[in-house]
Design brief:
Length: 337
């Protein structure tokens, strides 16, 4: 009976990431395009430039490792972050229970505790959440050199994700307490400590003689592009939400985004190529143009910079907290040239 329940739970998952074409730089026709997902996939499951679609994912070749999601600069490829976030939250120390760090493990490692198909799914938003909750998080990987799910350099990729996370969290004064390490013999007996609510969010998946606690995939619904809030990927929404404790008003938050100088010719290219419509171009009744930037929606892909005809756009890496509270006026002109 239990196996039947687990099978039904497993059928509800989806190991292939959701693809949102309107966020893809190829669909946006940004200068230089992007092939990060194709170049990163260790299983040749992603092809680019196909007729009728900017990319295609072969579900038979995709292992769900998440490495393409990890490197996508715009959130065009994504998994649902909420199950992983909830898992880390549920492992927080509870009153009356012994202290224990939270953990996420590779499903192939044999370690106990909550697992992902591959730690290639770990992103800065997830690690920043651990920092916001002040929850020590240990990422345990298996033998990546011989793993058929991910890639040999997953541990090195995790270190780069952690570095990006710490740059983001520097303004809060509280680094993310994250450790990346290989599995050890002691990890097989790791106890899973979650709340009762969290227990209902986990499922079991049999793998040979082992039963590993795993975080279920939850297929994401299509993005409703008519809702501006939905245009921002979960990854960047949670990066902004996890800037806790709140940075001081004079703190510099690491968040690469564009600035526009006076050589701008008021053309619509930057707004057209923006994958999340973080840049909007408003025509005024007097014929002028206002360029506005929603900083929290900007993924830092810099498609606008690379596509700008007069090269009037430059990157700024750090912003004050006030810049996240209201749209930033990038440029205001009197007449359209």
């Amino acid at each position: 009976m239990l196996q039947g329940v687990l099978a039904r739970l497993d059928d509800s998952g989806n190991h292939v990431p959701r693809f949102t074409p309107l966020r893809c730089l190829l669909d946006r026709q940004a200068v230089g395009g992007c092939d990060a997902c194709h170049a990163t996939c260790p299983h040749e499951a992603i092809t680019v430039g196909m007729v009728g679609s900017s990319i295609q994912i072969d579900a038979d070749l995709c292992t769900g490792c998440g490495l393409c999601v990890q490197v996508c600069p715009t959130g065009a490829l994504e998994y649902n972050l909420l199950p992983s976030l909830q898992s880390v939250k549920d492992q927080q120390a509870q009153p009356g229970r012994p202290a224990q760090d939270a953990s996420l493990t590779c499903s192939q490692s044999g370690a106990g505790g909550p697992s992902l198909p591959c730690l290639g799914r770990v992103t800065p938003a997830l690690l920043s959440a651990a920092g916001a909750w002040n929850t020590p998080l240990t990422l345990i990987h298996g033998a990546c050199d011989t793993c058929a799910v991910g890639a040999p350099d997953v541990p090195a990729r995790l270190e780069r994700v952690l570095e990006e996370t710490q740059r983001l969290r520097a303004a809060t004064g509280r680094p993310a307490p994250v450790t990346v390490r290989p599995v050890t013999p002691d990890d097989a007996g790791r106890a899973l400590k979650v709340s009762r609510r969290g227990a209902f969010g986990a499922m079991f998946r049999a793998a040979g003689q082992q039963v590993a606690q795993s975080i279920p995939d939850s297929p994401l619904p299509f993005v409703d592009w008519s809702v501006p809030e939905d245009r921002t990927p979960q990854e960047w929404s949670w990066r902004a939400r996890t800037l806790k404790p709140a940075p001081p008003e004079d703190a510099a938050i690491h968040w690469p985004a564009p600035l526009v100088d006076d050589t701008c010719i008021d053309c619509p290219v930057c707004a057209n190529v923006c994958p999340t419509e973080a840049i909007t171009r408003d025509l005024q009744p007097d014929g002028g143009v206002r360029l506005l930037l929603n900083l929290a929606a900007c993924t830092g892909c810099m498609a606008c910079l690379h596509s700008c005809p007069p090269q009037a756009i430059h990157a700024q890496d750090h912003w004050l907290p006030a810049a996240f509270r209201a749209p930033i006026l990038l440029r205001e002109s009197d007449t359209v040239m």
